[in-house]
Amino acid sequence: MSHNDPIGAAIQDYLKGKKNGSITVACNIADDDIIPADYLFRQEEEMPELETIALEACRGHVLDVGAGAGCHSLLLQERGFQVTAIDISEGAADAMHKRGVTNVQLSDVMELKNQQYDTLLMLMNGIGIVGDLFGLYKFLVHAKTLLNPGGQILLESSDILYMYEQEDGSVLLDLNAGYYGEVEYNMKYKTHESGNFKWLFIDASLLEQYAEEHGYSFEVLYEGENGNYLAKLVLLGE
């Protein structure tokens, strides 16, 4: 396993019994965040309401994008779904094999070809992998090649405008810096470091605009208290 796979390394350590590990997530607009390794192995009763709603909304052949340790894929398998789990982390993909996920691919969703699904599942702010608004455009176009007619994308994102609020309630944005939801991350775990990568948080109204421009219907299935939400995009007929 390479040394730029912090999530995979933490997952592998957890499987070996080292269950107190945590991944440090550095962001260019906020203080560091911590992801405990055990959160990646959560059971159904430990999942937030948004995730349980998303799992209930799945149908047909599901592609679990950025599947991590496979907690969602395993639960869907138990419910009888056909599931394909993908992740770009070598350590995560190996762990999912070991945990019993039937179909695992070490792959980037943008590189998938000649595969058809009824549901693309993107939890844990999963749409963020597109990086920026241009990446979102490319993803929505590419997703049409992966979805069966009437197929759906279930995705989690957040409106992070609140992070730019001042003490007086006003919002301070650099209008020359692009969309405020385009941020930069770096993840670290022990000697593993991802290096800087782009991540997108998109507000629901802008996502709706992008979805409808690219041939999808749009519906918000859940809104959380901290600006996060679950959206369903359904591919419309041409």
TrEMBL record:
Top-level lineage group: Bacteria
SUPFAM superfamilies assigned: S-adenosyl-L-methionine-dependent methyltransferases
GO BP: any one term: methylation
Start and end residues of each Methyltransferase domain: 62-151
CDD domains: AdoMet_MTases
Entry-linked InterPro entries: Methyltransf_25 (IPR041698), SAM-dependent_MTases_sf (IPR029063)
Coiled coil: none
Keywords: Methyltransferase, Transferase
One function term, GO molecular function aspect: methyltransferase activity
Protein name: Class I SAM-dependent methyltransferase
Natural source organism: Pontibacter burrus
